[in-house]
Amino acid sequence: MKVVNFAIWTMVILFIFQSENLLSQEIEVESTYEISGKAKRGELQNVFYDENGYVLSYVIRSSKRMIKLEEYYFDSDFRFIKMEEEEIELEKAKTKWKWFKGEAEGTEKRLLRVENNLTGQVVLKQGVFVQKVDYFNGVSWWDFKVLDKTKPKDPSGRRLTLLASKTDEPTTNITYSGWSWLGNDRTKAFSDATGDVTIICSVLPKIKDMRLGVSVPPYAVMRISVDDQTIKSEHYFGDEEFGGKPQQLIHTNNLSNGNMALVFAPTGGPGMKKIMDPDPLNFTYMEVDPESSSIVKTIPFKSLNALWAIDAVVSNGEDIYIYGPSENKKNDKHANLQTAGKYSQFCLAKFSGNTMDWITNTSLDEFASKLKGPPSQKKIPEYSGKKFIIGEFMASSSGDILINGQNTKTSKDGVIFKDVFAFHFDGNGKLKAQYGVDILETNKHAKMIVTESLFRESQDGKRIAWIITEVAGAKGAWGNDPRALNYARIASIDLEQADLSEFQSLGQSKEAKYFLENSFPVLPTTVGGDKLTFFGSNKAGKVIWFSRVIL
């Protein structure tokens, strides 16, 4: 095998902005190595690392009973040490390697799925994930098979309409000693999955309830068992929490802390004058623990906008952030009576504990006045006031907030993903800058895929590295598990000066082009400091590539 290993120490490219601030990135070490044809045709299943370096484990052949691997050893600066082959029984592999989660063909995992039918009633689909194996290519996947359908009701037989859900769904496990921002939500072990599902639903009163004057709480949280579809725990809410005034759920998403976030806004309209909240700005934030079906937070708060098209609710430690486009021109009109395709404001709120710390509006004019881009970029894209594709969120150690997103366009072929931007707020929600970045790649694959972003804070808390992935194309039949040909571009954001440096493309020289490994695009850096290690290969997949960058 041919080895190419070289250390590149380059001068830091300095860009002097009007603010006289210096921003830079530097490639510290870059190395390549040619793996065997077997490894190329196989699958990289794990990356192990310690202070001595890295071990890359490729599964090159598998059967119902045995698997065969090639393991490549590199030191901390990516110099090749050795390659070892190993053949081991499938069951022994599970014991030997914590990362190995292989399952025999036909293995089944139970699961509940939940959705509304055409009449708006909750339907539970009981089924199983069945392990499928392609022994020729050495890959496996899980197919879902529906076994039974039921329509759950509350204990009094009232119909339920699904608003939100969270299921303990088993997913393919790729956990390793490090992290990958492209591997989000794919690290839950099958052994931890119960298959139970928690639902947030509205409760539809019966005609008999209205005739007898029975008060029915408008909402419920229910935990439903995968074993027999019975309700394991339940909690009804909405009357006391909203002070007897009707509110509608305007946004929900699952939080990184494991809870479910709910945002409610007052409703109004004809025939509701006696019961509606006269102030359309009296919103409510709630947080639900799905395991216990209990409400762990209820925070009434005053919104700045009756119409708030929330993009996301994000948990960061003990803090909660809510953000999205908003409109305040008709704050005397309830949210359910308004619509908008474009918004004049962007609203950001922060909650700590059980109180709202602050809430701010930023107008489109202010966004335009603080628009910045890479120095050499002639045209700078900007936020247009519409809902956008949610990207990365970061609250820095200094309190600054960065929100990344991507503009889209609807065409006859579907949604087209366009330019990327990031909002930079201070610790009190005041806009410091809007950064706009043109996407370099305009091929059909780039237009079909969301541009991934990653923010990484420097150890001194003064800079944020902003990494985006460009899609140069795909190798293999699109839609048939192809390899996306991604490469990284990286720039620096100076938090104090609110400046953005040039973006530098990695692995894209005239001599050779390297693309990120889809499952392991970033490897743990063993040498410490403000550094990231990018990992990939050439288009053929035969020559692997390492690049350690000083941020």
Describe this structure in words.
Among the domains are: 38-100; 103-237, no CATH class; 250-369, no CATH class. 34% of the residues are buried. The strands form 9 sheets. Strands 1, 4, 35, 36, 37 and 38 form a 6-stranded antiparallel β-sheet that branches. Strands 20, 21, 22, 23 and 24 form a 5-stranded antiparallel β-sheet that branches. It starts with a strand and ends with a strand. The model is unreliable at 1-23 and 171-192 (pLDDT under 50). Helices cover 5% and strands 50% of the residues. The longest helix is centred in the N-terminal third of the chain and has 7 residues, at 90-96. It is globular. The protein has 551 residues and is mainly beta. A hairpin with a 5-residue loop joins strand 7 (66-74) and strand 8.
